[in-house]
Amino acid sequence: MERFKRLISILMIVSFTNVLFIQHAAATLISTEQVARAVAAEQGRSGHARLADVLARADVQQELVRLGVSAEDAQLRIAALTDDEAALLAQQIESAPAGSGVLGAILLVFFVLLLTDILGFTKVFPFTRSVR
Amino acid sequence: MVSPKSSRSPARCAERTPGAGRRRFLAAAGATALVALAGCAAAPTLRPAWQAPADLPRRVELADTPFFPDDTYYCGPAALATVLGAAGLAVSVDTLADQVFVPARRGSLQIEMLVAARRGGAVATLIPGEREALMRELAAGHPVVVLQNLGLSWAPAWHYAVVVGYDLERGHFILRSGAIERELTSFRTFEHTWARSGRWAFVALPPGQLPASATELEATRALVAFERGAPPEAAERGYAAALAHWPASLILAMGLGNTRYAQGDLTGAEAAFGDAARRHDAPAAHHNLAVVLLELGRPREARAAAERALAANGALGEAARATLARIDAVENGPDSPR
Prior knowledge:
The complex is a heterodimer of chains A (132) and B (338). In chain A, 64% of the residues lie in helices and 2% in strands. Chain A is mainly alpha-helical. Among the domains of chain A are: 52 residues, no CATH class; 34 residues. Chain B has 338 residues and is of the alpha+beta class. Chain B has 14 helices and 9 strands. In chain B, strands 1, 4, 5, 6, 7, 8 and 9 form a 7-stranded antiparallel sheet that branches. A two-stranded antiparallel ribbon of chain B has the order 2-3. The termini of chain B are far apart. The longest helix of chain B has 18 residues. Chain B is 51% helix and 14% strand. The interface between A and B is large, with 65 and 96 residues.
C-alpha cells in the first residue's frame, strides 16, 4: 500500500510538472537557474535529468515525513529547494550531519569526551575549560 | 565557574579554580591515553602559528547580534533566528524549527539551513572554510553561522553556532552558542571543532549586501537560489550588487534581466539582456532579449535576436522556435493569437 501510494504521488508530480514545463517553454524567458545549469554543464539538461529532479523532490518530501516532519511543512520545505539542493538532499538525508546541539551521542563516550574537552580537542561540555 | 572558557595558561587556571590540579592530572592522563590510541591527535599543535593579516582589526565583537538561548536540539533554528535578526529580518525560533528541524534526526540539515535563511528573506552564501574568511565577514559586520562537531569524528555532536567576534590578542572567537550568550572559544579548540564539520560556514545578508569573502561561484549560487522564492525586486537588488562586483558574469546579468522582467520592467530587462547578449553572445541572452523586444512592440528586432539564439546552440532551440512562432503571429497581423 505504501509503495502504491508512493507510485501514485510520483506519477502525479511528474505529470503536473510536465504540464508546467510545456507552458513554460512556450510562453516565457529562460530562467536564471537554467542559465546557471547550462553554464555549469555547458549544455541544457535532458528530459531524464529533469525527471530525476522531480523524483528527488518526491523522495525528499517522503523522507522528511517519515522522519517526523508534518506533510504540510515538508511540502513547503521541498518547494524552496533548488534542483541541485533537492538532488543532494535526496542522497544524504540519512547520513548528512544534523546539527542538534550538545546533547547528541554524549553519554556513551562521556569520559573520553571529558578528557578530549579538557585537552581542547572537543567542546562538548559547557563546564570544561581547556588546559591550554 | 564564572570565568570565561578561553584558553589560558595552566598556571592562571590553577590560581583561579580549586579543581584545576585534578583537571591537570586528568588532562595528562588523557593526553597519554590519546597518544596511545592515535598518534595523530597532538599533531595540530605542531603547525606554525597562524599569522593574522595586518589589515584585519585586532578585535571585533558584533555585540548587537541577538541571542536565542537553546539547551535542547534547536541550535539550528536558534542560529538562524540569530543571523536573520542581525540582518533586520525577525523570524521566531518556532517558525524556523518548522522549516529546518528533522524530529527523527533530532537536528537540522545544512541544506535546509540555507533554504530557511532564504525563506526568511536573506541571501544565504557559503563562505570559504578559512579562519581569515570568517574574520573578514566579522570585520564587515556580518555574523557567521558555523557547523561544528563538538565531539569526535566517531562520536559526533553536531552543533550550529553563530560567530559574532574574535580577539587576536587573546586568541579566541566569540560565539552565540546553545545556552551561552557569549562563549569564548580558543582559536585552537574552534579549529578542531570546525575542521570536523568540513569547515562549513555561511552568512545570511539582506539582498543587495555582498559577503566580504565569498567567491563568485558561491555568491552566484546563493543569488540564483534566492531568486527562486524571493520577491523579484529583492532578487534584483541582489543581482545588481553582485553584477557591479563581477561584471563579467553571464548568470548574474541574466538574473538581473529576469528579475526586472518579472516586475514588468521591460525597458530595464531589455537593457540587461542587451548588455548580456553583446558581452557574451549567449543564446539564452539573445532569446530573452527577443521575448522582451517582442513585448515592447519591436518584432523586427525581436526576430533578429531570436534567430541569433536559434543559430547559436541547439539546447535552447525549442524555446527559440517557440518565440519565433510568437513573432510570426504578431507580424502576420494584429488579430492573430499571441
